[in-house]
Design a protein that fits this description.
By secondary structure, the protein is mainly alpha-helical. 84% of the residues lie in helices and 0% in strands. It is elongated. The mean pLDDT is 88.
Length: 140
């Protein structure tokens, strides 16, 4: 459960506290934007590592015969979906934000898509944390 808490807490702290504080402190989006992009990239890679750790733990628990309901697959689905969102954000949306900034494209659209993807990751990580924090007999 510690890994799930670290994942959800990391997304919460970086996305909803550090990045807005960065933009408020630096004042200029031109200065804050590249730093925020690096934070989101770090968050993506951390999410992939933590998601993989969670998948391995869930698989091990299933193999050991720990009382895990069929809803373990649902928990794994939340982990996989969050990891997919992170990959699309890193290799799709982030590149479109850079391109839109350089070419005068629709920056607002791509920032909105990125925001939705971060929110999706946060919700999935929260669902995983909630499911893993259930009493052992009802877990996952």
């Amino acid at each position: 459960m510690f890994v799930a808490a670290l994942w959800w807490g990391g997304i919460s702290a970086l996305s909803f506290l550090a990045v807005p504080l960065l933009f408020a402190s630096l004042g200029s989006p031109a200065m804050a934007g590249p730093v925020a992009a690096r934070i989101f990239s770090l968050q993506c890679w951390a999410g992939l590592v933590l998601g993989m750790a969670l998948l391995l733990m869930l698989r091990r628990w299933r193999g050991e015969g720990v009382a895990i309901a069929p809803s373990a697959l649902t928990t794994m689905g939340f982990v996989l979906f969050a990891m997919l969102l992170a990959l699309v954000q890193e290799f799709g949306v982030a590149q479109n934000i850079v391109t839109a900034r350089a070419s005068g494209g629709n920056l607002r659209l791509w920032h909105g898509v990125g925001t939705v993807m971060v929110l999706g990751q946060w919700l999935c990580a929260g669902a995983v944390l909630w499911r893993l924090s259930a009493p052992r007999s009802e877990q996952v």
